[in-house]
Amino acid sequence: GVLGGTLVVTYPVSQICALRGSSVLIPCTYEYPDNATVTERKWTNLPNNSNWDAPPFVYHSRGEHLDTNYTGRVQYTEQDRSCNFKLTGIRSSDSRKYYFRITIDRHPKSVLGLNGVNLSVADAPKDTSVSVSPSGEIVEGSSVTLTCSSNANPPEQNYTWFKTNGSAVWEKGSGQSFTITNISPGDSGQYYCEAHNKHGAHNSTAVPLPVTGMIHLIPIHRKTKL
Question: How far apart are CA 134 and CA 171, in angstroms?
Answer without folding.
Answer: 22
